[in-house]
Amino acid sequence: MQPFELLLNQQKLARRITELGEQITIDYARQTPVLLGVLKGCVVFLADLMRSISLPVEVEFVSAASYRNGRDQDDDVLFGGALPISLKARHVLIIEGVVDTGRTVSMILKQLAAQEPASVEIVTLLDKPASHRVGLEIKYKGFTIGNEFVIGYGLDNTQLYRNLPFIGKMIDR
Ligand code: IMP
Ligand code: MG
């Protein structure tokens, strides 16, 4: 077990995710948005967020990974398969656990554009703006954090710790 310290507790996460869901409910009134989760880091956040949205929604997933193992950043993003359904004329919300360099989300945005969705917005539980390496507009973010490596709530270090019910920050980076 590598050392980590608590960054965001369960209560803070729950409160903020409820707020995000309420905001999305207002912003997408009378729509049926598609929540497009980016596996695997989105899973816990998406499960909470979708239950905070009081609208009909569809849920789809894409698989992407930019950190293949551990904390080392890899330059290319692995993208798993084609997009699941036609998103033409749909309102799409890309759901991410954390945006770091922004490459993953920006690659997904590019792929989506070809399908001519009605709108696309990014929803991320955590954003690391100091690490962005591409320009991004993130409409919905849970928390802004520094350039630190975090685990829990779906986020891993070498595929572990996703099941922690809070966000921890790895120490001794
Ligand atoms: P980006 O393409 O650099 O924005 O990376 C986003 C992806 O990197 C996320 O979907 C995560 O899988 C992973 N990632 C980035 N930062 C962290 C972190 O602090 N903890 C765990 N995974 C991270
Ligand atoms: Mg990872």
What would you say this structure looks like, in words?
The protein is an alpha/beta fold and 173 residues long. It is 22% helix and 29% strand. α1 packs across α2 (43-51). The two termini are 14 Å apart. The mean pLDDT is 91. Residues 67, 156 line the site of magnesium ion.
Nearest-integer average pLDDT: 91
Q: Given the helix and strand composition, which structural class is it? A: alpha/beta
Order of helices and strands: EHEHEEEHEEEE
Label the CATH architecture: 3-Layer(aba) Sandwich
**Number of distinct beta strands:** 9
Low-confidence stretches: none
Helix count equals 3
Features:
173 residues, alpha/beta, 6-stranded mixed beta sheet, 3-stranded antiparallel beta sheet, 3 helices, binds inosinic acid, binds magnesium ion
Itemize the secondary structure elements and their pairings.
Elements: E1 4-8, H1 10-27, E2 34-39, H2 43-51, E3 58-65, E4 78-80, E5 91-99, H3 103-113, E6 119-127, E7 140-144, E8 150-151, E9 167-170
Parallel strand pairs: 2-3, 2-5, 5-6, 6-7
Antiparallel strand pairs: 1-9, 3-4, 8-9
The structure holds inosinic acid and magnesium ion.
Describe the structure concisely for a colleague:
The strands form two sheets. Strands 4-3-2-5-6-7 form a six-stranded mixed beta sheet, with helices on both faces. A three-stranded antiparallel beta sheet has the order 1-9-8. By secondary structure, the protein is α/β, with parallel strands linked by helices. It has one domain: Rossmann fold, CATH 3.40.50.
